[in-house]
Amino acid sequence: MRRLLILIGLVLSGLLAAFLLGRPALAEFAVMQGPVTMRTASLWLQANHAGQARVEYWALAHSETPQQSEPLLLNAQQDYSALLSLTDLLPGKTYRYRVLLNGTPVKEGHFTTLPAWRSSGRPFDFTVYFGSCAFLQDSNWDWGPSFGGEYEIFDHIAEQALANPLPSFMLWDGDTVYYREADYESPWGMNARQRSVRHHPALQKLLTALPHYAIWDDHDYGPNDSIRSFVLKETSLTLFTRYWANPSYGLPQQPGIFTDFSVSDADFFLLDDRFNRDHDRTADFPGKQLYGPDQLSWLKNALLASRARFKLIVGGSQFLNDLSKWEGWQHFKDERQGFLDWLVQNRVDGVIFLSGDRHRTELLKIERPGTYPLYELTCSPLTSQPRKAAEETLNPRRVENTLTEQRNFCTLDFTGENIDRTVTLRSFNSAGKKLWEINLSAESLKSP
């Protein structure tokens, strides 16, 4: 009997150890680079308790006393998070920084400000790291075969970025977090999921390797395929603004996460495809909306005001895939056609669409008689389960050899001299191996 009890104890101990080993040891502090401009930078910080946070920073080429950010209190109302602003920087310089909590260093790193270029008229080269659908397994909730995997992809993105001599940033195209059904029944549960993901060990290297921008899609907004009727949509907005460091969020008269920013000769327009969305399956009616009139009015005016050679429009759902039966702008025919017609009427050059959601990657192209073709790069998934193309296998709009049905991330390299600027699109698998490459010249994205 004693031997039996010992054996049972060993088995139970082994099961408990296996269970605990399956639970990641969350980072005590999470630090993320926010946007970096010519004269400013930002660092997001979250701890597990109250305290005072500040940042010391200094240019590598100088040895003077470090500058210091304004100290910020970490309090329970913001779940002990803060966005620290670093100012009075010089363009094109590399800075070291040290994050301090209650005077104790908790993280060190570096960043490089963007170079000044407009006075010379010569745009600088840069890289965008791009992807969507990042599912992280939770042994407390997810049982059975894992929906997520190959988390090493995050380290490979970080390694590429750290070795890249060009300025770069990470653009998360939605489903950055997957709320479970036990999460989106309460604000507490949604915040707990956001916190656990942000502190996951698989992300820590990537979060500090380069600046980050993000939009949401359904899973980091609410339930699967969630829309404007989601009862905790205001909580979603509060949490998104707490955990990301985008330049702005929506407009005073139109809540949401949409914003824009510029890097070199490219402008990025980040859209909100959830806060005001009607259901895709709703029968067509006048005014059926995915983005809504206020957001589209903002986008149109921003596009007309843009002087950029490249104009990247970023949304969670696909824009141009007419064969898909899943969520996408194809189910909002009047709104989409009205915008596409507007692009032609106003001769808006340099437009490229970026999207995620579909758990596969592809480059779509639609010809437009009398003007340049439109391209859409869909990049997905990072760590979620890939899906086959099914009924869209022979999509005539897909650029040949760009279908990727495995976990992957994409890059966009903007390079070249003024008259020969090019954006090179690439897909890489989770081990960092290149899968395909397509070059698009700026000249090929201009109206005749």
Topology of helices and strands:
Elements: H1 2-21, E1 30-36, E2 41-46, E3 51-59, E4 67-68, E5 72-74, E6 81-86, E7 94-101, E8 104-112, E9 126-131, H2 152-163, E10 168-173, H3 187-198, H4 204-209, E11 212-215, H5 233-243, E12 259-263, E13 266-270, H6 293-305, E14 310-314, H7 333-345, E15 351-355, E16 362-366, E17 374-378, E18 408-415, E19 422-429, E20 434-441
Parallel strand pairs: 9-10, 10-11, 13-14, 14-15, 15-17
Antiparallel strand pairs: 1-2, 2-6, 3-4, 3-5, 3-7, 7-8, 9-18, 12-13, 16-17, 18-19, 19-20
Helix pairs in contact: 3-5
Could you please describe the fold and organization of this structure?
By secondary structure, the protein is of the alpha+beta class. The chain has two domains: 30-112, Sandwich (Immunoglobulin-like), CATH 2.60.40; 126-445, Purple Acid Phosphatase, chain A, domain 2. Helix content is 19%, strand content 27%. The strands form four sheets. A six-stranded mixed β-sheet has the order 11-10-9-18-19-20, covered by helices on one side. A six-stranded mixed β-sheet has the order 12-13-14-15-17-16, covered by helices on one side. Strand 13 (266-270), helix 6 (293-305) and strand 14 (310-314) form a beta-alpha-beta unit. Helix 3 (187-198) runs parallel beside helix 5 (233-243). The radius of gyration is 23 Å and the shape is globular.
